[in-house]
Amino acid sequence: MQLALEEAAKAAAAGEVPVGAVVVHDGRVIAASGNVTRDPPDPTGHAEVRALRDAARHLGQERLSECDLYVTLEPCAMCAGAIAHARIGRLYYAASDPKSGGVEHGARVFEHAQAHHKPEVYAGMGADEASAILRDFFAARR
Amino acid sequence: MQLALEEAAKAAAAGEVPVGAVVVHDGRVIAASGNVTRDPPDPTGHAEVRALRDAARHLGQERLSECDLYVTLEPCAMCAGAIAHARIGRLYYAASDPKSGGVEHGARVFEHAQAHHKPEVYAGMGADEASAILRDFFAARR
Questions:
Q1: Please, are residues B64 and B34 in contact by the beta-carbon 8 Å criterion?
Q2: Which of A58, A76, A103, A117 to mutate to test the interface with B (most CBs of B within 10 A)?
Q3: A137, B12, B52, B90: most buried, per Cβ within 10 A?
Q4: What is the tens place of the pLDDT at every residue in A54-69?
Q5: Which residues in chain B have Cβ-Cβ distances shorter than 8 Å to A38?
Q6: Which residue segments constitute the domains of chain B, with CATH numbers given?
Q7: What is the model's pTM?
Q8: Does B63 contact chain A (CB < 8 Å)?
Q9: In the UniProt entry, which residues are flagged as the active site (chains A, B) (predicted)?
Q10: How far from B92 is each of A39, B19, B35, B54, B67, CA to CA, in Å?
Q11: Can you state the angle between helices A77-86 and A47-59, rounded to 10 degrees?
Q12: Residue B11 scores a pLDDT above 90
């Protein structure tokens, strides 16, 4: 999770919403990314989507059943759907996101049969630091 | 929608689940894609995500408020989330997808405040042809 927080901090420095994600396979980091939605412009460029895509390319397979995903913020519906498609084994996220989350809020993507896969979900690890990075980012832009 | 159906047929020929998507801006097609999840492996490589990403790059902006999306199948939760992030104006989809859909089924992504944007949604145009392409694809693989 520390590495995901570093990715979030890098995203903030680049003017992107500071969220970071890391994919771990067999105890090794195989993909890490922050949000990149502005440069280049990509409405799908959330940290989770980018990290999952890189991990799939790295392993040469679409399914990441043996992988864990660490992300600094509760995934939105798009990212939760991507996590289900990737068959991620364990999802660890730091801060909850009542405003935009899709795991424990809103669409609750994993709670519907249409998701086809539900990872083990662990929330809260590193939440204070993840929230602080987001709060500082939005405070500085106001 | 005819062009989206052609993208779906091309995906089938490549061994990919036959779904196609097209983004239209000012009456012009600016992006078109089928599913590409196997080669290269990408759990996020649904036609909608790919077309939205290409459209954003084409227009040089993350938000596609002036764009319409045509897709041959009801978007899943991941794609519905991507459509909300992209601020797509109108979503047209052909066949409904009770098994994996996230618009009128399951997560119903646009029905939650966490989506932040809800496009106008029109369903059914080209549904018979879209369903036939999918049915033939899966029948041939059994």
A1: no
A2: A76
A3: B52
A4: 999 999 999 999 999 9
A5: 62
A6: 1-122 (3.40.140.10)
A7: 0.97
A8: yes
A9: 48
A10: 28, 13, 17, 18, 11
A11: 20
A12: yes
